[in-house]
Amino acid sequence: MRPDDWHLTHDVDGFLDRAGHFLRSRPGLHIMQLTWAERIRKRGADAFGAGAPLFGVLERGGKVHATFYRLPPRGFGLSPLTPEQADALAGRLATLGDPVPHVSADQRTAALFAKAWQRHTGAIPMARETRLRLYRLGTLTPPEPMPAGRGRVLGERDLDQAMFWCGEFARAVGEKVSISADTWADTRFADKRYTLWETPDGTPVSVAGMNPLIGGQIQVDIVYTPADQRGHGYAGAVTSEVSRAALAAGAKDVVLFADLANPTSNALYQRLGYRELTDWAVYDFQRDTSESPAA
Predict the structure, then answer these.
(1) Number of C-alpha atoms within 13 angstroms, CB side, residue 159?
(2) What CA–CA distances, in Å, run from 199 to 147, 149, 261?
(3) 53-109 pLDDT, tens per residue?
(4) pLDDT of 27
(5) From the CB of residue 232, how many other CB atoms can be counted at a distance below 10 Å?
(6) What DSSP string describes the chain?
(7) Strands 204-210 and 193-198, how do they pair?
(8) Which residue among 75, 90, 96, 249 is buried most deeply as judged by most CB within 10 Å?
(9) 31/218 Cα distance (integer angstroms)
């Protein structure tokens, strides 16, 4: 396999025309590529950074075998790759001479590419401590009994509520983002539909969001309950409500990510009917600043 087997483009429509069927054939494993390509298609190439997005397709014999995307200054997002595909891609991208901060993919692919990138560029890969598990919904099993209260979908008039909850979530997970009426439209939170779980007196105690339907699939993202409201079943209730709404919206697959360091949330999603699809990993790249030994 040659590096030139990877075809690169800045055109998101061309990328989706070429690779759309491949991505939709396994939408869960391609969730990030489908999501970000659709966001760029709708909002424009400059919506998420100053650099032009880059997409790649590995196509041989008229058949797509793998894909990737990059939104500068972010890193690479990859479809599942074989060792040969990862090495060819690293070799192709290394010729561009563009430093890359990280790679994000299923655990096996991320590790393969990290090693290949180090071989081709000398950059040192460092695995992030935070590891995620991607789940796909089987049969939805709502909590029994549900906590007292009800789910309420946030609409256009509830923008302040949505921004508040997304800000609380971002702070809780250490996500660096400015959320205000002026910046909201440019954040990844703006294209979601949110549901609050409210106690009988109308107090909001938990929130869950879901992305738009893409490729027959909806991703549940985000799920957040303030620390002082945990332990009452609110997260399970609101996640169940959003999962039900995703199915009602026509989703054939419903997926979500969970932090593997949080056994409570992983157990909760499994009780609701979510089943493991794959583990996810991110490797950051650092420049090798050591001096080469004299010849």
Answers:
(1) 11
(2) 8, 4, 29
(3) 999 999 988 899 999 999 888 889 999 999 999 999 999 999 998 888 999 999 999
(4) 94
(5) 16
(6) --GGGEEEES-HHHHHHHHHHHHHHSTTTTHHHHHHHHHHHHH-TTSS-SSPPEEEEEEETTEEEEEEEE-TTS-EEE----HHHHHHHHHHHHTTT----EEEEEHHHHHHHHHHHHHHH-PEEEE-S--EEEEEE-S----SSPPSSEEEE--GGGHHHHHHHHHHHHHHHT-----STTTGGGSTTTT-EEEEEE-TTS-EEEEEEEPPPBTTEEEEEEEE--GGGTTSSHHHHHHHHHHHHHHHTT-SEEEEEEETT-HHHHHHHHHTTEEEEEEEEEEEEE---SPPPP-
(7) antiparallel
(8) 90
(9) 9
Instruction: Please choose, from the candidates 212, 32, 245, 233, the residue with its C-alpha nearest in 3D space to the C-alpha of residue 137.
Output: 245
End-to-end alpha-carbon separation of the chain, Å? Answer: 32
- The token duo for 158 is 């509830």
Contact status, residue 181 vs residue 163, Cβ threshold 8 Å: yes
Cβ proximity of 261 and 133 under 8 Å: no
Of residues 169 and 1, more confidently modeled: 169
Task: Give CA torsion, residues 128, 168, 260, 124, to 10 deg.
Answer: -10
Residues 188-230 have pLDDT tens digits of 899 999 999 999 999 999 999 999 999 999 999 999 999 999 9
Q: What six digits make up the tokens of 31? A: 């969730």
